Amino acid sequence: MKLKDQIAIVTGGAMGNGLGIVKVFLKYGATVIILDYSDELNTTLKKLNNYKNQLFAYKVDIRNEESIQKCINHIIQNHNHIDVLVNNAGICNLELFANMSSELRDKHFDINIKGSWNVTKAVIPYMEKNKKGSIINLSSVTGPMVADTGEVAYATTKAALIGFTKSLAIEEVENNIRVNAILPGYILTPMVEKMAQETNEQNPQEVIDNIAKAIPMRRLGTPEEIGELAAFLACDESSYITGQTIVIDGGSTLPETNSMGI
Ligand SMILES: NC(=O)c1ccc[n+]([C@@H]2O[C@H](COP(=O)([O-])OP(=O)(O)OC[C@H]3O[C@@H](n4cnc5c(N)ncnc54)[C@H](O)[C@@H]3O)[C@@H](O)[C@H]2O)c1
Predict the structure, then answer these.
(1) 261 pLDDT exceeds 90?
(2) Same domain (yes/no): 149, 70
(3) Which of 6, 50, 128, 187 minimizes the number of CB atoms within 10 Å of its CB?
(4) Which ligand 1 atom is at minimum distance from the Cα of 138?
């Protein structure tokens, strides 16, 4: 029970990677608080009813600074402290740079960058007071390392989160707050299913199958695999790790070419 007695906030925990993180954190004994704006949240809570004493949720948009501050104040009133924050909520809407509106660009920047900023800003004073914390940001291999077409706005935000991670890590080291980033490759989530649908409306499964073929492990990752890495970064087993970017991609960023080799 490596997360026993830990109070953890997971943004975007209603589905996808966030839900995988929530499930693994619950398994390891954490009290988990989901912040998510999706209507799916109710269904998720019902499905996890076995954990009802350990699981709490707020339906909130991470873009709304005032609402986020109210949630965090409320969480502190009820739980007294916050040990772990996972900035997982994010969006990816495919669009070529030439066609991308300023509105769609800003939507990515507002959720993926400013949303993570807002929640961190509200949580960190309490971690500082407690002289303890682990913050985990969901970046991506997309942006810092690789990209597919239509991902300029998304990739920009995911690269920005690396700068956020490193600069916050150095500022907060004296407060015993560690800040790290997870860089997943393709993980099978509603986000990727939607992107596959946008890429090939007739046959989205073919898109998923072709992604899998291009990955050395020949499969997409699972949200629970992201959860296990997040749990490691959240707990004391990773106590000497801060400011780092950890890739979890089934080897997808390894191949140098697809033609050389015996
Ligand atoms: N799936 C992948 O292949 C992949 C790869 C690399 C990185 N990531 C990152 O993992 C994170 C989760 O991705 P996913 O694939 O699970 O996505 P998803 O779309 O399946 O789930 C995202 C969750 O975030 C919530 N959310 C989005 N915007 C929000 C907002 N403004 N306020 C509150 N909640 C909000 C959604 O309601 C949803 O529950 C993202 O940051 C994404 O960039 C995903």
Answers:
(1) no
(2) yes
(3) 50
(4) 41
Q: What does the DSSP assignment read for 6-19?
A: -EEEEETTTSHHHH
Are 116 and 156 in the same domain?
yes
For residue 162, what are the domain limits? 7-185+222-248
> What's the 178 CA to ligand 1 centre distance in angstroms?
22
Ligand 1: which of 86, 136, 189 to mutate, most ligand atoms within 8 Å of CB?
189
Q: How far is the CA of 261 from the centre of ligand 1 (A)?
A: 36
Give distance in angstroms: CA of 40 to centre of ligand 1.
Answer: 13
Q: How far apart are CA 225 and CA 219, in angstroms?
A: 13
Q: What one-character-per-residue DSSP string does 131-161 give?
A: T-EEEEEE--SBTTTB--TT-HHHHHHHHHH
Residues with a CB atom less than 6 Å from ligand 1: 11-12, 14-18, 36-38, 61-63, 88-91, 111, 115, 138, 140, 184, 186-187, 189-192
For the chain, the straight-line distance linking the first and the last C-alpha, in angstroms and rounded, comes to: 45
Q: Is residue 1 part of a domain?
A: no
Whether residues 88 and 200 share a domain: the answer is no
pLDDT digits (tens, 9 = 90+) for 60-119: 999 999 999 999 999 999 999 999 999 999 999 999 999 999 999 999 999 999 999 999
The string of pLDDT tens digits covering residues 112-159 is 999 999 999 999 999 999 999 999 999 999 999 999 999 999 999 999
Residues 116 and 199 in one domain: no
